[in-house]
């Protein structure tokens, strides 16, 4: 194959398991085929960022990784991205021991795959001189094709002609595409978004909506704004709509009093921000300049760009996309392996039996689960408390009070082990010039505490803050909110919509964490808060509601406290009765895929359709399916894998959106196909993991307006117990799917 020019961002996106065939359906990636080289670039890439050249001399099948490593493509890609990041560190590249690397002049050879590869495939790569450091993957070697570095060094090496010429154009094209998608909703509302507006806001005016909404929604919309309000309600109960109406109301009533308030609506994702912005335009008949609608990190970027932008040469490793999260997990896995090989012997004796067993385990699933738990501990506990390695940091960590939702660490010895791994993790990020979003937020917070911000917030701050999907914000993110208010003499007035069930474990933590955190700022925000509750669901039918309630009852008891819980016994649906959700059980994984393809065929003409994948570990398989469904050209298929994706809002009345359930939060579709549900049987021990999976299932099911179909297959364990119980109670209609 011709050489490929790509980027760290593109490698990471491909490493999420996105099938190379699905690049055409991805809103994040762009593939450009040239005469001498091909390009794959990702949205968010910079023209001045490092370029990655993959020479592909031996490739016949695989697009990026060596042929023969297709089955571990994701981990190979992830390691490639990590190599390029490490190459950016000043003072030369340092690789973890388990990569078993060799160096010869500027050439580096290392194991291509993190998992065991019987052929022992190695890359021969070379960081090029320059700033940033471009990297070339010249070739690969394996047991059958051994090639020493010193011999390879004698072979003349030549980069493809013109390889750096079209790169700029490709990056500009992919970024221009995203800008269009984001900006278009504001500038070209009628044309581009009519079908969705009509389903969300029905084309009604504010007065029409005010007359039509339920009593509990109206009470919230009309409530005084002298203190903060928490609006609780299950999925689809009209929280977003009520927040939107209240924001409009406050602006128009202030205008009539001759003042012009600055109002901010904060969301967790770009897609929801764009949706709310469109709803405002539609309800008001025109944009309202006093209202800003943005994801939190975007606000941080406009307020104090020096803390968010890449000026220090550091870039952000994000949790706001599937690829960012995956990259973090991969990094923690590497750090864990290295820790086991070195320091673990000195720590082992002081660790509890449970933690010891988890760290000692060689099972890939156990290691992954541990990496996941550690990532939560690092982000939502250690990072959220602004503890970064340094003098006194370990002691502060040991003294933190622990709450039930946190990773059970039984002894100070356990905490010391976790802290040691955390320090290594931060060191390794540092070496690769990476920052976590937590670190950025902590820096931003210290800026927001300065006098200079205190002065500028009078002009740049907001009078009223609305926060949708409050349950998805980490404690740290929530602290930032305080400083965004304009008037420092009163507590910020924040109107937040929340449904704790929609929050996968790490963010669940965010909600419950308020009870355990000592930060006075956080307490102030939440102390004097009026409570409103919505108990009518407007999105979906009574049949879907019964299934959603069933999932709610399956949650392990998690004491979130009265202020956060929703009383599901009173919840009703205002929609007309519809079909009972169906469970289609196939004999094999391939059978399940044909069942899904058949359902897409049948349901596509009837409206917007989503395929929500509950367990993201299974995303890879379904992304390949999405690619095949898109290939037929009969369907418009888009994949959504980050908070930044707005493709799901594209201007189509029809279309299939495929994505991990967590990125579909806040959105709705006529029909939702749900797949990738792992077993969370009664013997399931990790309660936090069970809550995470149930909340993703709850989220997936509750995106549907009219129809739900759930797909399982016997290869992956067949129907899981939570679904079996739903069938036994008549909430799901079980059908046999394809058996081959
Ligand atoms: N009182 C109402 N009458 C009719 N339709 C309504 C009413 N309230 C909300 N809706 C509609 O119900 C749907 C769900 O509303 P919305 O997205 O605001 O719910 P939500 O509580 O924010 O959901 P989620 O938490 O799942 O994101 C939307 O289509 C909205 O237009």
TrEMBL record:
Annotated Gene Ontology cellular component terms: cytosol
GO BP terms in the entry: recombinational repair
Any GO MF annotation of the entry: ATP binding
InterPro entries in the record: DNA_helicase_UvrD/REP, P-loop_NTPase, UvrD-like_ATP-bd
Residues that hold ATP according to the record: 233-240
Record bears the keyword Hydrolase: yes
Keywords: ATP-binding, Helicase, Hydrolase, Nucleotide-binding
Keyword ATP-binding included in the entry's annotation: yes
Superkingdom of origin: Bacteria
Domain UvrD-like helicase ATP-binding: 212-541
Annotated protein name in UniProt: DEAD/DEAH box helicase
Species of provenance: Microlunatus sagamiharensis
